[in-house]
Each structure stands twice: as structure tokens, then as C-alpha cells.
Design a protein that fits this description.
The structure is a single chain. The chain has two domains: 145 residues, Regulatory protein AraC (Jelly Rolls, Sandwich); 108 residues, Orthogonal Bundle (Arc Repressor Mutant, subunit A), CATH 1.10.10.60. It is built from ten helices and nine strands. Strand 3 and strand 4 form a beta hairpin. It starts with 11 loop residues before the first strand and ends with a helix.
Length: 269
Amino acid sequence: MKIPYERRVIDLYYRDDNNGQHGLACSAHLHYHIEFFLLLDGRSRVTIDTASYDVMAGDLLMVFPNQIHRYEEIEREKYVLFIINPDLMPEFSPIFSRQVPKSAVIRGALQDESLLPLLRLLSTQYESPPRHYRELALKGTLLALFSRLLPRMELTEPCAQDSRAIRAIVDYCARNYTTPSLSLEMLERDLHLSRFYISHLFSEKMNIGFNDYINSLRISGACRLLLQTDLSITAVSERSGFNTCRTFNRSFSKLLGLSPSEYRRGKEG
């Protein structure tokens, strides 16, 4: 079965139910980012890989990177939801790249009085992201938040062979996407997996081609450099893993619909 792979280039995404106008329900998909929501009211059913969870008011559910997940609304929901790039927290990289929760739900998470202030702070950092010092402030909030959440989850290694392979592949790509020569042959050599099997996992399990996936990682990294540094477009291109600035500009425009210069000017404005 093919599962859509979401291409996300932003580091932090936030939304709420908008006074009941936006539900959580969505079809099965996966992505590189961490996704979690706190259910304030109502009831949801969530399927992650092969496990299903009934989420009640006061519970928090967390989806680790590259887990297939879908949401169903059982009762009208009131919630806050966040999607976060795990690269913002390299301290937790061994956890997010190699493990998954035995249970994705933290029951009664809302009883932790420190949780809501951290989530409110995180939502304001999404709504009004200043360019300077944003990364440090955001990282501090995330480290404080996940230092409270992760100890409440029992973690284990993924079970299915394809799931383990996908996590190994995406972890390798996340660490090496800035290498211009990154290829299926490199993954085959370093991960001891057939390049044909790797290509199969991308096309059949993630519904995205290998090159498109690598480009999405490179564009995501380029967006951070464009916002957080004064590097030239050429330097951003090189640091993001593109062979030429022309290729960078073409890939950036294809994915985001505007040039790197326009992206930088728009975010600064």
C-alpha cells in the first residue's frame, strides 16, 4: 500500500480547532517531523502504524518521525497540535531516529501544570517568529517540553523489517543530505541494504522518489539558513548540498513556488 509522504520545509507548525471549525481527522500519511496534539475536549481515534488508540480529553498523543498515522474524530474535538522538525533537538536524535513509543498516548498529560505554559509559549514562537535568536529560544522551549514528555513514554525499537529499514534510511539521509554526492549507492554501501530495496521503500511505502526526498531535506535546511544567517544565496546553496546554484534555485522554486531571494525577503518583511 502506498502512503503519502508529506514534504514539510518549515521547522514548526501549529494549529488548533479554531472554535470547532477544524477537526483532527486525516487520512494515513507519514513525514520526517514529530507530530503531537493535546486533546482539551472531545474524543479521537488515532492509528499509528498498526496500533490504534482512543484519545480522551486531557491526553497527549505523539507520533514519532516516519510513523504512518491517521486520525478519526469520534466526538467533537478541542485541541492544540504541533508538528516539529526533530533536527531542532539533536540532543534527542538517538531517540527519534531509532526508537518508537510502546504507547503513543500520555494519559492525563494535562494534569502536568507545566505543560500548558510551554505549549502556549511554543504557539507564540510559531505565530511571531523573530529572525534573530529565534532558533535558540525555540530550542530552549522544545528541550524543556520534551524533557518532560519523553520520560513518560516507554520506548522500544520498531518491530517490522520495513519500518526498521525506513528509520535507518531517513536517519542516514538526515545526517548526510548536505553531501552533494549522496546517492542510493552510498546508502547501499553504508547501510548494507540493496539500493533496489531502498528505492522500493521510497516508491512503494513512502510514495516519494529518493531524489525528491533528498531535495526536500535540502530545501528545508536552506530555509533555515536563509532566515537565520546573512549567507549569500550561493553559499546557502553549497551548504545545503546542491551541486550548483542553478539547481538550487530550480528545486527551491519547484517546491515552494518562489525563489530563495523572494523567500528571504518575504519572511523578513
